[in-house]
Task: structure prediction
Amino acid sequence: MSNETKITVTKLVADGSNWVTYRDRMLWAIDSHGLSEHLTSLTIMQAYQDAGNVGILMPQMWWHLDQAAVKQLVSSSVLDTIFNTIKTGTTAKDVWDVLKKLFEGCTTLILVDLGRHLQMTRCTKEDSIREHFEQLTDLHQQLVAMDKTAPDSKYASILMGSLPPLYQPTLSAISVAAEMSSTTPTPAIVTKLTTDEYDQRTLRGGKAQDEAFATVADACQRGKKQVECFNCHKKGHVKADCWVKGGGKEGQGLRRRGGGARDRGTKGDAATGAEQAGVVICRLGLGLKAPAWAWLERAQAS
Result:
């Protein structure tokens, strides 16, 4: 008996895939208000007779009110199509029995389907191991909720069998360790070790990608050194950046200080060499040691 029957419970889906969870939640909800006997009895229970009148309500009237509360709770948690099937029940027990008859039989088919998915789901080398294990865990928990439990050893074997050949060394290590310790691999051990291996492979893959990018950049830099100017036919720059006459930056290069025609010759050659060195240094971003820079400055000042 209960003075407060306002309770809610998870909805039962049309295909009955959540029947076991729905059934258990419904039983818990009804029992929390002391009304569970209404699902098993067709007539007024002795507890109502012993309680006597409640206010102006006699035991039979109070029992009918609680019966109506249980029936209303069940009817409000199912779809209209299901309600139309169970609404002819006179008592709460009648309604509950019809509902169980509708979905207890479907449970077997659902179990077969879930078990097949659990056994056949495979992870490829491109898939995420973590997401794969989450999917299998969800299927396993659904089976457990439907009272279909599998030994840990069998579930561990399913996990191991669902992995790609890439993880064979890890699986072999797990098997050898279990054999040496005279134990069987557990789902927790399989999940932990293989996800650790997956994380390490992911990190190594990221480093390898960075190295690949660095290699490409280095190759591009080396290729830049081999570029030949169409104006002066020297390597290390293009015509648009060429300081020689006819180039895009004609006259913008290093200049000699002082001197005239009489100074041309060896000093001019030195200045030209300094200009070329400056071009290579600026275009390629190369660093020079102090003596080399001193030579460049002396060549410019000559």
The chain has three domains: 19-108, 121-204, 239-301. DSSP finds eleven helices and no strands in the chain. The CA atoms of residues 20 and 146 lie 5 Å apart. Residues 19-108 form one domain.
